[in-house]
Specification:
By secondary structure, the chain is an alpha+beta fold. The radius of gyration is 13 Å and the shape is globular. Strands 1-2 form a two-stranded parallel sheet. It contains two helices and two strands, in the order E-H-E-H. It starts with a strand and ends in a 15-residue tail after the last helix. The protein has helices spanning about 15-30, 50-60, and strands at about 5-10, 40-45.
């Protein structure tokens, strides 16, 4: 607890994905007080053509805190 899943367009290197995942994990440690071994992070490549539909199928749109041009309540 927690698990964070980030959907993004393909094209990032495994090294960059690991760097991003570690930064997200660190925010959860620093700001929420979680232990490192309690935080899991995935970065999911999602094709641009189906990005909005794929993301909206995975989430409760009422839980969106920050909207983007593609993902809205």
């Amino acid at each position: 607890m927690p698990h964070i899943d980030v959907s993004l367009y393909p094209g990032r290197s495994p090294e960059l994905k690991e760097k991003i995942a570690k930064a997200i994990q660190q925010v959860c440690i620093d700001e929420l007080g979680f232990q490192p071994n309690h935080v899991s992070v995935t970065l999911t490549d999602t094709e641009p053509e189906t990005f909005t539909e794929d993301v909206m199928a995975k989430i409760d749109k009422e839980a969106i805190i920050i909207e983007s041009d593609l993902i809205k309540k």
